[in-house]
Specification:
The complex is a heterodimer. Chain A is mostly helical. Chain A is built from twelve helices and no strands. Chain A has two domains: about 180 residues, no CATH class; about 40 residues, no CATH class. Chain A is elongated, with a radius of gyration of 24 Å. In chain B, helix 1 packs across helix 6 and helix 5 packs antiparallel against helix 6. Classes of the chains: A mainly alpha, B mainly alpha.
Chain lengths: ~260, ~270
C-alpha cells in the first residue's frame, strides 16, 4: 500500500501526454501496455511491478486492435492504471488489471469522441488548403494532436493522483445511449467521406462497377479488400484489351469536377 | 499531353518523406480517416513539385484530402509512388485512380501482417519475459517496432522507384490506363461502402405474444444487406451534388440524427 506522490502523478501525466500522441499516430507502439506499464513501474520506483502488470495487460489486450478504424478499450489506461492500482492498493497484478478496465473504457470513449469530433475539422482544413494557407493547415494538424496528448495527460493525472473514485464512476455515469451513439457514429460518418469521393469520381459509365464492388463486398465474406481489388483489376484488364488506343465515347467527363 | 518530366525530388527528400509518413494519422477522424494526414505528409514535396503552379498545387492538395484509410507502415511506399507520378505531371485521374486502387488492399495486407500476426507474436514472447520480471520483454518489443518505423524509409524509396519506372508505360497508354484506374478505384469504393459503413436498425416490433419482428435481421437484411448503408450514401451524394449542401452541415446532421436515434433506441 503506497500513496502516489504529486511528483509521480505529474511524471505519469507527462508520459501519458507522449504515449497518448503515439497511440493516435501509431508510430513507436509505446502505447502498448507492455511499454507504458514498464514505464509506470519505473516512475513508481517498482520496475518489477510495472513489468508484471504491463505484461499481463499486454496479453489481455493483444487481440484488441484499432485495425480498420474500430476503437478498442484503451491500452494506455490499462497499462498505466494496472501498476498504479497494484502499487496503491497492494492487490495482485491480475486483479489490478480487472480494476483498471473501467479507466480503459472511459478513455476508449474519449478517443471515440476525438475520432468523431475531428470530422468537423475537415471542412476547415479543406478551406485552408484551397487558400494555400499552410500555416493554418499545420496549426490544425499539429494542434489537434497536442490536444489529444493534453487530454490524456489530464485524465491520467486525475485517475492516478487526484480523483480515482470520481473517474471510476464516470464510466458508469455516462448514459448508455451516448456511448452507444458514438459507436454508431463511427460506422456512419465514413458515408460522408464516400459521398464526397463519389461526387468527384463517379461518372455515369462507372456506375456498373460501383454496383459490382458493392455487391461483391456485401455477399462475399473476405477479411480484406484484396480479392475485390484483384477482381476489379481483372475487369479493368478486360476493358483495357477491348478498347483500341482511340478514346472511347462516353469516357469524356460528364462531371464538372470538384 | 505530358509536360517534360522535371526531376525535383532528391534521395534525401525521400528519406524525409519516409520519416514524415509516420504522421499520417494526424487529425484522424471518422469522416475521411487519414485524408488530412496523408496530405500533411506530402505537403513539402507537393509544394516543391508545383513551385510555380498554384492551381496545380491546389488540385493536388484537394485530391489528397479525399477519404483514405490504409496501414501507416505502407504510407511511405504509397506516397513515394504517388509523388513520382505527381513529379512527372501525370493526369490527375491516373494518380487518383492508382491511389484508390492501392490503399484499401494495402490496408488489408497491413492489418493482417502487423495487427493480426506480428502483434500477437510480439505480445506473447515479450509478455512472457515481462511476467518473469525480465526487462528484455519491453526492450525487445520497442526495438522491433522501432525497426518497423525505420523500414518505412526504404519502402518510400522503393515506392518512388517503382513509380518512376512505370511512368513510361503509363505515358504510352495514358487514356486506357486512366480508364482502367477509374474502374478499379470505383469498384474498391463500392466495396469500402459495404465494409466500412455499418448502419443497423435495432427496432423490434411486437407482433403476437412472445413473437417480435426484428426490422433489421428479418426484414431489411432479407431485402438486401447493407441496404441502409448504400441508401445513406446515396442521400448524401444527392445533397452534395445536386443541392450543393456543405459537408460540415452533413457532418452536423449525421451527429444529430445518429445520437437522437441512439437515444430513442432506433439505431
Amino acid at each position: 500500500m503506497h500513496e502516489i506522490t504529486l511528483f509521480q502523478g505529474i511524471l505519469l501525466a507527462i508520459m501519458a501526454f507522449i504515449v497518448g500522441m503515439d497511440f493516435y499516430l501509431e508510430v513507436f507502439f509505446w502505447f502498448r501496455p507492455i511499454i507504458c506499464g514498464t514505464l509506470t513501474g519505473l516512475i513508481l520506483g517498482n520496475l518489477q511491478l510495472g513489468l508484471v502488470c504491463g505484461g499481463a495487460a499486454e496479453l489481455a489486450f493483444a487481440g484488441l486492435t484499432p485495425a480498420g478504424g474500430t476503437q478498442p478499450p484503451n491500452p494506455i489506461l490499462a497499462g498505466i492504471m494496472a501498476p498504479v492500482l497494484a502499487y496503491s492498493t497492494g492487490v495482485e497484478a491480475t486483479e489490478a488489471l480487472a480494476l483498471a478496465l473501467p479507466f480503459s473504457f472511459l478513455m476508449q470513449y474519449v478517443v471515440l469522441m476525438f475520432w468523431s469530433g475531428y470530422s468537423f475539422l475537415m471542412p476547415l482544413m479543406d478551406k485552408s488548403l484551397s487558400e494555400l494557407n499552410f500555416k493554418k493547415f499545420n496549426f490544425l494538424s499539429i494542434g489537434s494532436l497536442i490536444l489529444v496528448g493534453i487530454v490524456y495527460a489530464i485524465i491520467v493525472f486525475l485517475c492516478a493522483y487526484l480523483a480515482q473514485d470520481v473517474m471510476r464512476n464516470l464510466v458508469g455515469m455516462m448514459p448508455e445511449w451516448l456511448s452507444h451513439g458514438f459507436e454508431v457514429l463511427g460506422g456512419v460518418l465514413p458515408a460522408i467521406g464516400f459521398a464526397m469521393l463519389l461526387k468527384i469520381m463517379l461518372k455515369s459509365w462507372l456506375i456498373p462497377y460501383l454496383i459490382f464492388g458493392f455487391i461483391f463486398a456485401t455477399f462475399l465474406p473476405f477479411s480484406n479488400l484484396l480479392p475485390l481489388a484483384l477482381t476489379a483489376v481483372g475487369m479493368a484488364l478486360i476493358d483495357y484489351y477491348r478498347q483500341d488506343n482511340t478514346v472511347v465515347k462516353g469516357e469524356i467527363d460528364d462531371e464538372e469536377g470538384i | 499531353m505530358k509536360k517534360e518530366s522535371n526531376k525535383v525530388i532528391t534521395k534525401s527528400d525521400l528519406t524525409k518523406l519516409g520519416l514524415r509518413s509516420s504522421l499520417v494519422c494526424l487529425t484522424f477522424n471518422y469522416e475521411r480517416m487519414m485524408a488530412s494526414g496523408f496530405t500533411y505528409v506530402q505537403v513539402p514535396l507537393l509544394r516543391k513539385i508545383y513551385k510555380n503552379d498554384k492551381e496545380g498545387l491546389k488540385e493536388a492538395l484537394a485530391d489528397n484530402m479525399e477519404f483514405i484509410n490504409t496501414h501507416p507502415n505502407f504510407v511511405g511506399f504509397l506516397t513515394g509512388l504517388l509523388l513520382s507520378l505527381e513529379e512527372a505531371h501525370e493526369e490527375r485521374g491516373i494518380i487518383k485512380g492508382i491511389k484508390t486502387a492501392l490503399y484499401a488492399p494495402l490496408a488489408g495486407i497491413g492489418d493482417a501482417l502487423f495487427w493480426f500476426t506480428l502483434l500477437p507474436i510480439m505480445a506473447g514472447i515479450c509478455s512472457s519475459f515481462a511476467l518473469e520480471g525480465n526487462i528484455i520483454g519491453p526492450i525487445l518489443f520497442a526495438l522491433v517496432y522501432l525497426a518497423l518505423v525505420v523500414l518505412r524509409i526504404p519502402l518510400t524509396h522503393f515506392g518512388y522507384k517503382l513509380g518512376t519506372k512505370s511512368i513510361e508505360t503509363i505515358n504510352e497508354n495514358a487514356a486506357k490506363i486512366s480508364k482502367a484506374a477509374g474502374i478499379v478505384g470505383i469498384m474498391v469504393i463500392g466495396g469500402l461502402i459495404a465494409t466500412y459503413i455499418s448502419l443497423q436498425l435495432t427496432v423490434t416490433i411486437p407482433l403476437n405474444e412472445g413473437i417480435t419482428l426484428d426490422l433489421q435481421t428479418e426484414m431489411l437484411d432479407k431485402i438486401f444487406p447493407n441496404l441502409l448503408a448504400i441508401t445513406y450514401v446515396g442521400i448524401l451524394y444527392y445533397l452534395l451534388k445536386k443541392k450543393n449542401i456543405k459537408p460540415v452541415l452533413l457532418i452536423l446532421g449525421t451527429f444529430i440524427i445518429v445520437l437522437a436515434c441512439s437515444y430513442f433506441g432506433i439505431l
